[in-house]
Write a structure and sequence with these properties.
seven-stranded antiparallel beta sheet, 9 helices, three-stranded antiparallel beta sheet, 12 strands, Jelly Rolls, alpha+beta
Amino acid sequence: MPDNTIQTQRSSNSASAGADRYPSRQEPAPRISNRLDPVVYGAAAGGPLTESQLRFFEDHGYLSIDQLFSEAELGSYVQELQRLRTDEQAKDAPEAVIEPESRDLRSIFAVHRSSEVLRALCGHPRLVAMARQLLGGDVYIHQSRINYKNGFRGKEFFWHSDFETWHVEDGLPAMRTVSFSISLTPNTEHNGPLMLMPGSHHRFVACVGETPDNHYRASLKRQEVGVPDDTSLTQLAHEFGITSPKGLAGSVTFFDCNTMHGSNSNITPMPRSNVFVVYNSVDNKPVAPFCGLAPRPNFIAEREDFTPLTLPGQT
């Protein structure tokens, strides 16, 4: 790329809707291949991120920004987080994922639909502007959720690439999707923070194991199909290393859909609770899942409402 700009790049997502350019869970052995899509689709002039920040994201597959939201701004979001944590009706909803060994909430999906407060956060202009810049145009919400990671018993999330699942089980054709993790509590080195392999987004790990029917019901609690094998993870860790962005409440980490990531369990008294919102390009709408099964529920992967998120002044 030239020194003075990040060129707009277009995905080869003219790849026909039915072409599987990232086959996974089809072969008896895992395989690591190179990424076929761009990482950054927009330019430095097209949003709030600087050329340096875009280059960092291009190279490392993630970027962290401290105190993107002030303590005053966080107040209503934290109150909503706590309200949902103790709402027994919310725990019984299909969108809720309960920790395997307790009644504690592990995650709640589609919070931008069920909560006006969190809808405002997921559509916040600061987040949307960065997502549009990274993905090169209009975006919609593919998924939103709260991950609670409660104190003492918050379970781990094993290493995985979101794109592998979103491609195989949801039918996203290309790597043109970005996740934002908004910290509503401090993320420290002790309470199970997000771990990333910086640069791993340039590789695609094809996993082994046939996808079961209604796999999401088990995988959201403990994923065993669609996770990389130990040998592939060891190779990626040796090649790229592991980093763990940390920050106070109000910090934001966003990462490419194919960045290998996970987190340890939380045995501290301090919860690590984040809101995740996943933005997808309107030019990367899901097709039929590449596993050949029925798609996952709409609250996990949007398949109906592709309305672009707007910024102030847009019509």
